Amino acid sequence: MFSVNVIYNKKGYPKLVCDGYFYRPHNAYRNQPKVLWYCSGRSKFQCPATLRTYNRELTRWRLFTCLQELASRCCSMTGTRST
């Protein structure tokens, strides 16, 4: 299955790490048991990858970030755009 962890930045904002890819929470659901997570490259690269968790358990996912052609454009894996 997937390796899923939640990490926090210096300001306490959560990020979900799933198999090396980073996701940010949808702000409306951030403090709820059910959270919708977007790829961190969503706004810059229009990455369609999403995850849904319920009580920190992964329940649904669209992992289009794993596709090679999108992963080459998306910065969500390393935090920087790959060349």
UniProtKB/TrEMBL annotation:
Pfam families: FLYWCH. Residues 8-54 form the FLYWCH-type domain. One of its GO terms (molecular function) is zinc ion binding. Keywords: Metal-binding, Zinc, Zinc-finger. InterPro entries: Znf_FLYWCH. Gene3D superfamilies: 2.20.25.240. This is FLYWCH-type domain-containing protein. It comes from Leptidea sinapis.
